[in-house]
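User: For a reading group we're discussing how well predicted structures match intuition. Take DNA-directed RNA polymerase. Before you show the prediction, I'll give you the sequence so everyone sees exactly what went in.
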Amino acid sequence: TRAEVENLHVTPRQIITPQANKPVMGIVQDTLTAVRKMTKRDVFLDKEQMMNILMHLPVWDGKMPIPAILKPKPLWTGKQVFSLIIPGNVNMIRTHSTHPDDEDNGPYKWISPGDTKVMVEHGELVTGILCKKTLGTSAGSLLHICFLELGHEECGLFYGNIQTVVNNWLLLEGHSI
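Assistant: Thanks. Here is the predicted 3D structure of DNA-directed RNA polymerase, as structure tokens, for the group to look at:
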């Protein structure tokens, strides 16, 4: 019927498959490469770059976050930029695909030297480098949690915002394979 066709063609409703209750859509290719590169510890943006990136974020409230580094000039991290994309009050603890098993207890239980422990608290990326495991089609990924907690419409906007902001950052940064 017409109602069935209209509901089946709403793409954000098809993010999670009922067969396995996990996402069938995820961040891939250029965007996934850029997200990994953006969330590394050594990525910093100056005020001009930050303003150019924020221009592409449709949900931005107009307030600049406090820079991670104040002197000699204000610098923002890639994690701060990605935190502006994350919707709502989402929480997640996962590990990067290269996370070593011996860092899961002892002094490295909550933070890892290689930045492979991914932690999102109240919609802010606190630690970790995002990868296919944390943004891809696996159960428990950030996209899966957003879908479950915030619904299909908000998750669809999240997908779009990641694509837009991160790909525009990649234009500033540059990358070749």
